Amino acid sequence: MSIALHAFEEDRAPAGRLAALLDTPLSLVQTHTFPDGESLPCVPKAMPTTLVYRSLDRPNAKLVELLLAADAWRRIGVHRLVLVAPYLPYMRQDKVFSEGEPVSQRVVAGLLDSAFDRIVTVDPHLHRTKSLASLFNHAECTVVRGGDALIPFLRSSPFAAGSLIVGPDAESEQWARYVAEGLGLRHGVLAKQRRGDRDVVLSVPPGLEVHGAPVLLVDDICSTGATLAAAIRTLKAAGAKTIAVFVTHGLWTDAAIGDLRSAGADWIAASDSCNQPAEEVGLAKVLAAALRNEI
Ligand code: R5P
């Protein structure tokens, strides 16, 4: 065995699937929480190259624990520390939208850059930032596409045949196009106007023929579900026959899944990046492929 794979308890299942494909045992970090809320992670025996699986949805406490653990791994002699974080948080705040705000994307990338030699993640939400690597001075970056897990899944499911692939807004065009090209289907995006965290208005642009089509909505993130619920209602009103939904990262805050169902979603799925309750499209295979060179 030339590498170690470590994870935190909440990622035991997806990290275990990755460990099986890499043919490496999985060891768990034990975390003690003091009465005042401080965390004390204790890392297991490591190897000079150690892979750490921690998806960073609901990120605040997880990030602090991860950085503390990174210090511990270095102290026991880890030379190459590779973070496998299928969901990378704070990427959406890529500029100061209102005076007084931070550029959170750069702050969080800087913290991870100081602790890890390589970051492997899936579909980071990069809008104005052109590449993930541009946020890191030291760590190498590998971006895995959620679509590479979704495309083979859809080939053997009833949701792809003849579908129109739709992204709910301009930023999702890249994800919708990738899946559509992989499956040889047509795609388009809706026009979106965001009026608040939970308030978006969508419309079907001229030229996008929705009437009578089975639609697969594709996006990178679902948080409150406001965007996708509005997209489903808009597509239904435009005559979509059925609506299936896939997001790479199902954060599912508030009552997102229920809201998507009430809006009329026939099928809802997400990758297993956030350990949340929707039908899962596993990322283990595509992550293992990206990590083969570490073995
Ligand atoms: C926006 O650019 C993203 O791709 C998502 O559409 C958005 O972040 C989803 O958020 P929510 O589910 O809260 O509408």
Description:
The chain contains eight helices and 15 strands. The strands form three sheets. It has a seven-stranded mixed β-sheet with strand order 3-2-1-4-5-6-7, with helices on both faces. A six-stranded parallel β-sheet has the order 9-8-12-13-14-15, sandwiched between helices. About 45% of the residues are buried. It is an alpha/beta fold. The N and C termini lie close together (about 10 Å). Helix content is about 30%, strand content about 30%. It is globular. The site of ribose-5-phosphate has 13 residues, from strand 12 and helix 6. The site of ribose-5-phosphate (R5P) has 13 residues, from strand 12 and helix 6.
Largest sheet: 7 strands, mixed
Strand order in space, largest sheet: 3-2-1-4-5-6-7
Mean pLDDT: 94
- The low-confidence parts are none
Bound molecules: ribose-5-phosphate
SS strand fraction: 25-35%
Extended strand count: 15
- What gross morphology would you assign? globular
Q: How would you classify the helix and strand content by structural class?
A: alpha/beta
Rg (CA only): 20 Å
Give the termini separation: 8 Å
Q: Helical residue percent?
A: 25-40%
Name the helix and strand elements from N-terminus to C-terminus, one letter apiece.
Answer: EHEEEHEHEEHEHEEEEHEHEEH
Number of H- or I-type helical stretches:
8
